[in-house]
Design brief:
The chain is α/β, with parallel strands linked by helices and 414 residues long. The protein has two domains: 2-151 and 274-403, 3-Layer(aba) Sandwich (EreA/ChaN-like  fold); 156-260, no CATH class. The chain is built from 17 helices and eleven strands. The strands form two sheets. Strands 1, 2, 3, 4, 5, 6, 7, 8 and 11 form a nine-stranded mixed beta sheet that branches. Strands 9-10 form a two-stranded antiparallel ribbon.
């Protein structure tokens, strides 16, 4: 019996390896200036009619990945009709704030710099996207709207406006707390949460906001304001779980990010095609199919919650990224690290050594071999290999042979 199992397992992995080697599509370059998109047509064909495309990254400082994603965004916007770009950044600032900002270069670019995480806006390899392309689309007939879905309220716009916005909706809803002596303390905690470690204050705030949510008037039950309150509440729950060193702090955040993204996709931008920019650990689906290891913490993530909805799953294409060699690290941390070597019989070593960039569509594989669901090693979640049924975790993979970390942007401070 064991011999039969090993034989089936070996056949399955050979099938995947053979498929990758025979169906890999070479990508000529990752330069955002390369506007001959013919080499990206294979990715476009794989995406097909998908309305939501999620672009991952192994870490938040992967310079070649950011270049590749910028080029892909241009292709998706100009050739495939995608007109919304959603970042793993401040939901309120990039929703309410983006709607409010004047759509001119000298207004757009400072807004992006101050409200999208600096791991991207301070990275030189993202300069073309943030300080050239996005604002230029507003000089054409096809603009690229910006939004965000992260429950963490970190942007300058949120620091300036969130408390006022919350006050306005609670007053409109005639929430009893507004007239209480605790109200100012409640509002002020929205600003102080990032500097306090007082778990008691966290608990009081969470209980208050939960009571508000539970008693919202029926006519506001599907409103943006209520979703925002839930997002704020979950952010504080995640922060409290982190302070208590509880393992679910990331899952709390990811579940709310999925809810925010669903609202963007199916309410605010329901007639639009959306590109999602986030870490691969957030966008991947079926996380239970990644074997537990140092690179797999076992928490349910945004992609898992988002694709539990059958329509969202059908309309979404998840593009993961992997790399073979090199260094990694974030622009916010001076310490860089060497990426773990690719496993000898892993995905990265199935790609010919002379190929710099490539794409593999797992969708075709699943159609050709629907019964084959086999584990194989790949660096699909972080810069370390994990064994997973990767064909069920991502819909396709963008391969980069040599990784290197971001350089500091000279435009971010202008």
């Amino acid at each position: 019996m064991v011999i039969v199992f090993v034989g089936v397992q070996s056949f399955a992995q050979k099938t995947i390896k053979k498929y990758v080697r025979e169906n890999i599509v070479s990508i000529k370059n990752i330069s955002p200036d390369s506007l001959d998109f013919s080499d990206l047509e294979a990715i476009g064909n794989a995406i097909g009619d998908s309305r939501i495309v999620m672009l991952g990254e192994q870490d938040h400082g992967d310079a070649p990945t950011f270049l590749a994603k910028t080029r892909l965004i241009k292709y998706l916007h100009e050739r495939k009709g995608f007109d919304v770009l959603a970042f793993e950044s401040d939901f309120y600032a990039l929703t309410d704030g983006w709607d409010a900002v004047e759509k001119k270069k000298d207004k757009i670019e400072p807004f992006l710099r101050k409200n999208i995480f600096s791991i991207w806006t301070n990275c030189m390899q993202c300069d073309d996207l943030f300080y050239n392309y996005i604002s230029k689309t507003y000089e054409t007939k096809s603009s690229l709207a910006i939004t965000g879905f992260d429950s963490q309220s970190h942007g300058d716009y949120s620091k300036e406006k969130l408390k006022k916005f919350v006050d306005s909706i609670l007053s409109k809803w005639q929430v009893p707390l507004v007239k209480s002596k605790e109200y100012n303390t409640f509002l002020n905690f929205l600003d102080s949460s990032r500097i306090t470690k007082d778990t008691l204050k966290y608990n009081v705030f969470i209980n208050q906001i939960n009571a508000i949510i539970d008693n919202v008037p029926e006519e506001f039950s599907n409103s943006y304001g209520l979703l925002l309150l839930r997002s704020v509440c979950e952010d504080f729950k995640s922060g409290l779980a982190f302070l208590r060193k509880e393992k679910n702090y990331m899952e709390i955040r990811d579940k709310q990010m999925a809810e925010n993204l669903k609202w963007l996709a199916y309410q605010k931008y329901r007639d639009k095609k959306i590109i999602v920019w986030a870490h691969s650990a957030h966008i991947l689906k079926n996380p239970d199919l990644i074997k537990k290891s140092v690179a797999s913490e076992g928490w349910a993530n945004m992609g898992h919650f988002f694709t539990k909805d059958s329509l969202a799953k059908k309309e979404t294409y998840l593009l993961g990224f992997t790399s073979k060699n090199g260094m990694a690290g974030r622009i916010t941390n001076p310490n860089k690290y060497r990426a773990s070597p690719a496993v000898k019989n892993g995905f990265e070593n199935w790609v010919p050594a002379n190929v710099n960039y490539a794409f593999v569509d797992f969708g075709i594989f699943k159609k050709l071999h629907p019964a084959v669901k086999e584990y194989f090693p790949m660096k699909g979640k972080w810069h370390g290999s994990s064994e997973a049924i990767w064909t069920e975790v991502f819909d396709g993979i963008f391969y980069i042979r040599d990784m290197y970390p971001c350089d500091k942007s000279k435009l971010a401070d202008l």
